[in-house]
Amino acid sequence: MKTKYLFLAVAALGMAACTEVDDFAQNNAPVGGGVEKGYLAVDLNADGATRAAGDSYEDGTAAEQAVSSAAFFFFDAAGNPFNINADGNYFNVAVADNGNAAAPNIESMTNPVLVVEKYKGEFPASVVAIVNYTATASFPLANLRNQIFSEGHTSGADFIMTNSVYADGAGNAVYATPLTIDNFQTSEAAALENPVTIHVERIVAKMNVTAGATAFDTGVQVNGKSVFARVNGWSVISNPMTSYLIKTIDTTWDPSTLGFTWNDTPYFRSYWAGLCQSASNHTFAYNELTNNDSTVEYLGEYVGAANNERTKYIVAAQLQDENGAAIEIAQWYGTSYIGEEALLAAVAPTLKQKFMQFNGIDTYTNIDDSQLRCVAGNAAAESYEVVFQLAEGVETDNWYAFDGVNYTKIANPNAELAKIEPAKIWKDGMTYYYGDVKHLGVAGSVGEYGVVRNHSYKVAIQGVKGWGTPVYDPTQQVVPVKPTDKETYISAEINVLSWRVVSQDVTLQ
Questions:
Q1: Can you list the residues of the chain whose pLDDT is less than 50?
Q2: Which helix (H) or strand (E) holds 256?
Q3: CA distances from 175 to 133, 168, 310, 498 (A)
Q4: Angle, vertex CA 139, rays to CA 136 and CA 141, nearest 5
Q5: 175: containing domain
Q6: CA 302, CA 309: separation in Å to the nearest integer?
Q7: Rounded to whole angstroms, how far apart are CA atoms 388 and 52?
Q8: Which of 351, 414, 420 is nearest to 385 (CA)?
Q9: Which H or E run contains 206?
Q10: Domain check: are 345 and 394 in the same one?
């Protein structure tokens, strides 16, 4: 791989190439020391040199690997700020030329020399690079690690990247790139011969769901007719909208518990994370599931969560007949009907003794289907169910129940109707399926589910089973749930990338 380097314009650092810093922080200065200048060459590496043999990877797009700025934070051996200029322990660098580097590398700039001027014999022990970020304050390493950033990458540009985190050969967590005296040379030319390589990773993950134009056989018929499901869109929910700036790891993690090998020292990478933000945005509406096969969503890091807190993706679909026409299905007490009208026609006769309308003189008339309607979002039912109510325009007075002897007035007929067993209606064939985002762990392991930064989660829908979760009102905000009395899932093939590919076949229940 051709190595390219980062150009740190000395003028942008507020100093001339051949002058010393006149005003630098004194807290790092040994008594009686002299001043010397060290030239530090930096090689930023995102993907190219860290690809493990046998694994396949996905190159970042031009936008995902573009660099417009970079900040470098320096630390002493204890992780305290190592002040390198009057501002503190950081350099900000504006990158004017990204060099149009070929994917997957972001090391696309030339003339890569950082000028570090410190007291003789005193140089920083480590460095953290933050790409597409401008520093405004000094931080100790511990504080820098815990900075929280908004995911905020839906614009498809200026992806924040920070040092990749891994355990070294001695089992120590590496959060900052170690520096040695050999990295600090007395000339620019010498520095180029001994660059320090900083491996960086994007602080977000990304996801894509594809289904193509196939209408999948649900395997369940209604009135002798086969029912198919065609995917119309998707989205991700239950995912945090923020990520910590630098990933946290625990070097005591047991690969047998996680279900995969999480650390990769030779390639300066790890594939699991510790400290994460809480998830948000747990609800969705069917008409919001508009992503298509080419859409990519960027996700905050989220691992080790309880089952109901996993990152979920929701797939919107339409139930169709064999000719591709929408088929509206209703279910009540285990019986299926085609269309809401057929359901109401079946329900009304069962209510003829419980709901009778008095004409005010001498006649009681049984309720009929024209006086009924279905309503979603009632507190008496699950989010995927509808309750029965009086139709629009039907008077709510003079309703009675008959027990064979006496007529008893019903004060609130809609409240009584809501007590009847709810129904399920796939209005105009609208349905959804959902699954939890899987990671690299084997089934049943801690690492089976999760979202880890710099991974790309690819879901290829290969089929469905069952009619999914019914939708009656596409604008209703709901929490994803599967009907309790119906097994339904989508069959999908998951490819997990770092922007790395690891194939998995899963069945989403």
A1: 1-35, 47-54, 97-112, 152, 486-498, 501-509
A2: helix 255-258
A3: 18, 10, 26, 18
A4: 140
A5: 10-203
A6: 9
A7: 59
A8: 420
A9: strand 205-210
A10: yes
